[in-house]
Each structure stands twice: as C-alpha cells, then as structure tokens.
Amino acid sequence: MSTDLYRTVRLIRRFEERAIEFVRSGEIVGGIHPYVGQEGIAAGVCAALGPDDVITSTHRGHGHVLARGANPARLMAELMGRESGLNKGRGGSMHAADFSLGILGANAIVGAAGSIATGAAWALRQQGKDSVAATFFGDGAMNEGMLLEAFNLAALWQVPVVFVCENNGYATTMPVASAVAGSITGRARAFGIPAFTVDGQDPEKVLEATSTAVARARAGKGPTFLECTTYRFDAHHTFEHRTRLTYRSTEEITTGRSRCPVEIQGARLTAADRAAVDAEVESLLEAAAGIALGSAHPDPAAALSYLYAGEI
Amino acid sequence: MPKLSYLKALNRALADELERDPAVFVLGEDIRAAASNVTAGLHARFGSDRVLDTPLSEQAFTNFATGAALVGMRPVIEFQIPSLLFLVFEQIANQAHKFSLMTGGQCKVPVTYVVPGSGSRTGWAGQHSDHPYSLFAHVGVKTVVPATPADAYGLLVTAIRDDDPVVFFAPSAALGVRDDLDFAALAPVPLGVGRVARAGDDVTVVALGHLVHDALAVADELAQRMSVEVFDPRTVYPLDVDGLIASVQKTGRLVVIDDSNRTSGFAAEVLAVVAEHCTLTAPPRRVTRPDGAVLPFALALDRAVQPGREQLLTTLLEMS
Ligand SMILES: Cc1ncc(C[n+]2csc(CCOP(=O)(O)OP(=O)(O)O)c2C)c(N)n1
Ligand SMILES: [Mg+2]
Questions:
Q1: Which residues are found with C-beta within 5 Å of the ion, ligand 2?
Q2: What's a Pfam family in this record (chain A) (predicted)?
Q3: CATH fold for the domain made of B195-319
Q4: Which of A92, A119, B47, B186 has the most CB atoms in a 10 Å sphere around its CB?
C-alpha cells in the first residue's frame, strides 16, 4: 500500500509538472489549476474507495481523476483538447470525467458538486448498491450555500457520501481566516455530521480517515466530513505565473512547501523501490505525453456533438 | 365521456410513469401532503423514497436530481413558484444542461422540472407571477408549455422519458381547464411538434399554454369578420419550425400572443423564424408583457400588464 500511495502522489506531481510545461509551450490553452502540493488527499481518499464507488471533482481536479485510475494519456489529451481525451476534448481541465470509473465529472462551479454527489450516492443506494460517493471541494466552497444545503440533505437522509474539504488556506487570494466565520468542521457538525481534521500532506493519514468514513457510509450510518489541511505549492491558476500577486509571503510559501506529500510518502520506501517507481512513472508519462500530442484535434463541424442525448 | 382537468392530467401522468418505471421519482416541497394537488395520492401509493419531500433547499435538491440522473434515475422536480427557477437557473442551465456535451456524451441527465402554476397567479404579485420559458429556450434547455389536459398528460410523460433535462410550465391560468376525454386515448405527445388548435385562412395566431384558450375565444368572436388559425407550438424549444411555417405560408399574416416580457422573448423568436422563411402580406405583430415587466399586485394593474384577449382582439382588428 505504501508503494501504491507513493506511485499515485508521484504520478500526480509529475503529471502536473508536465502539464504546466505544456501550458507554457502553448499545447494546453487556457491554463490549469495545479494540484501540486495537495496530492496526498486525492491519493489517500481514492485508495479507500472500491470499484463501485463514485467521485466528483473540482476545478483543481487532475489529481482526483488520476488517483481514481483515469488513463494519464487520455487526461493529458483532454487538457490539450484532443479527440482522444477523456471527454473527447469537450470538457478540458475543469470538466474531466470518466463515467466508466465512477468519475462523475470535475465541476468548475465552486460548491456545486457536493449536491450532485449526494444525489448520486442516494440514488445508488435506492438501486440496492452499496456504493459510496466521495466529493472533493476547497475551503472556498465552505461559503457556498448550495454545499451547506447538501450537508443537510445528506445528514437528513443518511446518504453514503464522504465530504472531502481540501483546506489549502486560500480561495484564490482570499485567506480562510478572512472568509470562514466559526470553523470548517463546526459547520459540518452543525448538521450532525461527524467531522475530523486530517493532515492532508500525509497520504496514509488521509487513507486511514477515509477508510473509516467509507465503512461508516457503507454501514448505512450516513455522511462523514473530512477537513484535509494542505498547502497549494504553485499558483491558484497558471495565469498567476504571469502576474505578481503578493497575497502569500515568500516565507509562508517556503514553510508550506516544506511538508511535501511526495517526500513524506517517498520516505517510507527504500531508495531502490522509490527509484523504480519514479522510473515507471516517468516512462508512463513520457508515453502519455506522446500519445496526447499525437492525437487528432476534434472536427469543428462536430462542435455541438453530444449537446443532447439524441437528435432534436 | 369523463372529464379530465389539466391538474389531474399532471397527477395521472406522474402516477403512470412512477408505476411504469422504477427509475422515476418525484421530489419537491410539500409534495407528500400534495399542497399543489399535483402529487395527490402518490405518497400513499409509492412511498417516501419515490415521492421525496424536500427541505427548502432548491439549489441543492436540483443538483441532487442531476446526480441521481447521472447514475440512472429519472427525477421529476416539482417547483412551488415559477421564480424559484431563477434560483436554480445555474443548476439547470449550467449544470444539468451542460453535462452531456462537456463529458463528450458519457452521460445523460433526464430530469424534468415541473412548475405547476406558472405565470400570473392572480393576487400573488411580483415575485410569484413570472413566466420565464423564453429564458430556458434561449439557453437551449428543452421547454414545454402545454395548453390542454391531453397535452399536459402527453408532454409530461414524454418529458419524463426524454434523456435530456426538460422544463415543464403548467400555466396557472390553464390548471383548471377541463376536457372531455377518453382516458384510454391519453398518449405521449412528442416534443417539438405543434398543433393547429383551430384552422383558419386569414391570419395565424401563435399562442402557448393558457393563451391558446384566449386565442381560440377571440377567434370565435371574430369568426364573422376573419378566419383565424390558432397554432399552438406546445414546445418552446425545440420549436416546430415546419408547423409554424406551414401555417403562416397559408395565411400570410402573423400575430403572436406570448406571456413573456417583450425583449428577446418567445414572440420575438417566432417573428424572426417567420421572417427568415415566409413572405408576409402585413407586418407581424406581438402581444406580450411589456419590456422588463414586474407584475404589479392590484388586479387592474396585473391585468394591464398581462397579454390578454382584448389586446389580441384589437391587434387582429388593426390588421384586417
Ligand atoms: C461559484 C463560483 N464562484 C467563483 C468562482 C471563481 N473561482 C474559481 S476557483 C476559486 C477559488 C476556490 O477556492 P477553493 O474552493 O478554496 O479551492 P482552491 O482553488 O483553493 O483549490 C474561485 C473564486 C467559481 N468558479 N465558482
Ligand atoms: Mg482553497
């Protein structure tokens, strides 16, 4: 398990670094919200899920999608808007989805996916399945009424959903302390949802907390809320690379980066094992980049394909 | 023949679909007690999981329905007031509607949004009297505004079976309409297919929902002076362009009566479509709510703002 978690965080880290390069070179248009620094959360949460479970993701979603097992070549192709992308190039970075893996989509509207995941988890239970939904969102989403409404529905109806709040300290430039009155876990507890703060930089801690939450949900005991504390190592969005925003001090960034999930998990492997995983990830991503770059662009004549389920 | 009211037709369509397909469930506020009567008897028959009474959390329960639809359910949401659609416009226009394209066709979102009592509810004033069907047509969400009990039944059944989101407006002023019907003849009505509610030769009046009944009454009143054809598109989007053109090509003249605000409303779209396809013998006319209308409370003011029989009559006489 240690090795698997390491492989996942390393894969996400290197995927994001390559994606940032492709933003710089213009292969990815529109930029991305890098997940660098937060990999431990996606890795830990998704490792606790089974094949029939579902997830929803966010604007900062590549890590969730990769941790859930999406093909890196198809995700990279999606970021490049290619026909072989997960969404056939129709979604891009903020909407990556793979329904065959229970990835019900990344959502670009902050706070929107929690209620979608709650509905999906409720419906799967109605259908007699023992599926659980894990829904990711940031600290910024804690101020969206729609998400708070979803907590209420999930708690009322004992829906098998795990709410995963990735508290990276900021919503774009807005610090949590200036945005959230009371406390993040206190908000979940107000709905009667058990809520825990977890070290999001340690994938094993996240896995452990999520496993308990998933078991509870499967046992019919309803939702759990996990506040995973973390730090975003890179920009809010790659556009920030071209600006000089001063909302985080250099000292703060240095301290934040000092607890790196890739290093924390990597330290649990022997040097040889770690090198082997690194090499494996490199060759996987090298191939993925090649496949993505070599994929066809969609035909403009098909710009509105899939708008409706059938002809209208 | 037995009589069926529009409201009862909605109830019957829901019951039939709940019975037919275990994936269908209804959710909304006060639907267990059936405060609007649309779900009368359904909770007793189908239970709490299929007639799901919700707290007042429109945004979350609209997305909740999307989530359920993504994993194979066919939710039907009953909204208590038409303006609640403004509150959930994001959840319908930006979420439910966009999932299919944005995922490259990986999923479907078959949710039906029903507003029983859309448009003016006499005496309910500004925040309860909107009729925003043009808004949904504009963003490309399938939208229906049936006029008769048979169409209410048939279009609700079709909306529920459709694999895309569909907004269903049941105008307040149509809920009491009753028709003699052979219940066995109730059947699905396809989306995007209008009907000629009254055949005529001199002018086409396009009307939706309760205004179809007003148009028919005016046509009767003018029968000695002109032969009015009433075309009821039934579906706002996708519009039955062929049916519309066929009618206007026959009559050469067009009046649209439409309970939308004027600018960028449904009537404007009908005029544009006709202008693109037909040569008219007189300039087309619109009878609509005024621009940016907020329905005032006092009865005389409410009636002054809503399009109605008198304005239609006057407009038709001006054209003759
Ligand atoms: C409802 C909504 N408001 C604003 C935005 C613009 N926006 C995109 S990401 C973001 C910050 C989100 O912060 P957080 O939820 O903490 O996630 P993080 O970016 O830190 O991962 C904002 C304001 C949006 N996409 N959706
Ligand atoms: Mg944040």
A1: A 138-139, 168, 170-171
A2: E1_dh
A3: Rossmann fold (3.40.50)
A4: A119
